[in-house]
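Recall from the previous chapter that SMILES is a line notation for molecules. Here it describes 2-acetamido-2-deoxy-beta-D-glucopyranose.
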Amino acid sequence: MPSCIKILLFFFISSARFTNSEAWGRHHVFFVKEASYTRLCETKTILTVNERFPGPTLYVHEGDTIYVKVHNNGRYNITIHWHGVKQPRNPWSDGPEYITQCSIQPGDSFNYKIIFSSEIGTLWWHAHSDWSRATVHGAIIVYPKHGITYPFPEPYQEVPIIFGEWWKEDIMEVLEEFVASGGAPRDSDAYTINGQPGDLYPCSKQDTFKLNVKYGKRYLLRMVNAAMNEIFFFAIANHSLTIVGADGGYTKPVTKEYAVIAPGQTLDCLLEATQAAGGSYYMAARAYSTAFGIPFDNTTTTAILEYDNGSNLPTTIPFPSLPFYNDSSAAFDFLISLKSPGPLLFPLNKYDMQIYSTVSVNAFPCQNNSCAGPNDTRLAASMNNISFVSQFIDILEAYYYNINGVFGTRFPSVPPLFFNFTSTNLPSILLTPKRATEVRVIEYNSIIEVVFQGTNLVAGIDHPMHLHGFDFYILGWGFGNFDKNNDPLKYNLVDPPHRNTVIVPINGWVAIRFKAHNPGVWFMHCHLERHLTWGMETVFIVKNGKEAQERILPPPQHMPRC
Ligand SMILES: *[C@@H]1O[C@H](CO)[C@@H](O)[C@H](O)[C@H]1NC(C)=O
Ligand SMILES: *[C@@H]1O[C@H](CO)[C@@H](O)[C@H](O)[C@H]1NC(C)=O
Ligand SMILES: *[C@@H]1O[C@H](CO)[C@@H](O)[C@H](O)[C@H]1NC(C)=O
Ligand SMILES: *[C@@H]1O[C@H](CO)[C@@H](O)[C@H](O)[C@H]1NC(C)=O
Ligand SMILES: *[C@@H]1O[C@H](CO)[C@@H](O)[C@H](O)[C@H]1NC(C)=O
Ligand SMILES: *[C@@H]1O[C@H](CO)[C@@H](O)[C@H](O)[C@H]1NC(C)=O
Ligand SMILES: *[C@@H]1O[C@H](CO)[C@@H](O)[C@H](O)[C@H]1NC(C)=O
Ligand SMILES: *[C@@H]1O[C@H](CO)[C@@H](O)[C@H](O)[C@H]1NC(C)=O
Ligand SMILES: *[C@@H]1O[C@H](CO)[C@@H](O)[C@H](O)[C@H]1NC(C)=O
Ligand SMILES: [Cu+2]
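With both inputs in hand, we obtain:
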């Protein structure tokens, strides 16, 4: 960090940090219920929390513990996940349906205990059952402890920027149609910024999100990608972004003309209102989508940055330039530049166990009429050729209470079959995965390296892989097949990016390491919702340590029943 920034920060006193007191506090209540919203000229009911879309922002300080009592007043089973909150020893409140809990059924409630530890910056919460997270999500803002300032110049104001994805159809119908067809889900009709599509879509100009700024002031954009199926490029016309945080941790400040944000990821960006002429400027986001020949929602969502003085009559509002929709080098230039500010949280010179896993889209041969995948197949997805199957009870309870027959412990630590994973010409015999519920058991406190290997089965694409219960360092990435002899020589062991969601490049690999000091049952999955539905996931069970404070906490009084 430049020393001028360090000195500067002492001169800025918190101003707007505590203006929104609406969701401070130790106890919160979420009512999950339907509410009516009009977008793209049509009114429909969506599932919300407290009738808000996006849902309420939670404000906490580093290290706080809070409780959120979730009442399910909707029609569907639901669970809520606190994305990026490590929940030390407390997988009971992590949220993923059939992984750490049974769902909260309509009419029931569950009191989540959310234990913050080292997280700082921006995180988020979202539904983790069926596809409800499309509209059931909101930001979590973690401030430094009382009396501690940011390691960057204090912003004048802080603004959540939440990206979403909107379908005209009911999201449960989208999901049912998708599962029944065996093909790809229908594309969304719009992307949104803070719930609004922006004025490139019909009937949206009136409600487009506007950020009013004052010349000379500094703003902290707290960005969350809550979209279901797309990674985004984002930029603001005539303004650069200084990234200072990602996934609930600080980064070394780095100034960029555009950002890349995957579903599951967050970014904290400083924006300086430097246009003395005032006026208005577009901010825009659209898909970063690499799969060749695979359709996707290719629309652009916008919001407007508006100065409070100056010429409010420009004939055209400047539009930012965004990298081309399949520009992987632009995406990875950005991602790899987000270095952790150090010091390292654990030594990176060695690991205790390596898990080398393919992440693949697959296809099952057609067994009924619902086979809209390529060549009359049924699409699926896998890690190390296992397409994960959920059970009738969650893995955590099965593990904790020794219930047999729910899961196996044979998730392979290497691909069961080595082939040229990224070849442009793969035989269709490789397409079919195995359906199973296999987890990987990990020793307490061991250092785990996971190498994700993208494959070109069906079609190569980037995968945002998310690990619950931990943050990790991203040591290296590359296109093609991981070379275990040469690639590790190029790892960044000094200041690697520190995140909870990593993008595996199309037809490439990425290597991460984490320290397994959090006993529990932790989900690991692709954050593209269609891939999650198809089975691109597994579970890590981290064993208890020897000491009492190294063991999973006892379950809360009332867990939802299956
Ligand atoms: C077709 O089979 C798949 C499993 O192979 C199943 O998930 C799906 O529901 C079936 N579709 C219909 C319409 O029966
Ligand atoms: C905004 O950026 C565009 C393209 O880079 C440039 O042509 C234009 O002059 C800039 N406008 C202002 C007000 O700086
Ligand atoms: C997406 O839109 C861009 C223009 O914004 C166009 O150049 C590109 O071909 C489109 N891609 C697809 C796959 O439709
Ligand atoms: C807007 O306000 C700033 C600060 O007061 C001033 O420097 C700038 O010239 C103003 N711009 C216009 C176009 O009036
Ligand atoms: C990106 O898309 C363009 C056309 O839309 C295509 O010509 C080009 O080959 C694609 N690039 C990659 C790396 O797939
Ligand atoms: C793997 O496939 C890629 C893409 O078709 C090709 O460029 C590469 O040479 C192949 N590697 C090997 C070891 O055959
Ligand atoms: C995946 O598993 C299936 C079923 O066991 C097997 O037939 C297939 O060969 C495996 N494919 C790969 C690539 O490991
Ligand atoms: C579909 O069939 C064509 C022609 O046989 C083949 O080239 C292609 O790889 C197949 N795709 C899948 C996903 O099976
Ligand atoms: C809701 O959860 C209960 C208990 O796990 C389960 O029996 C039921 O099938 C679920 N309903 C749906 C629609 O998934
Ligand atoms: Cu994926």
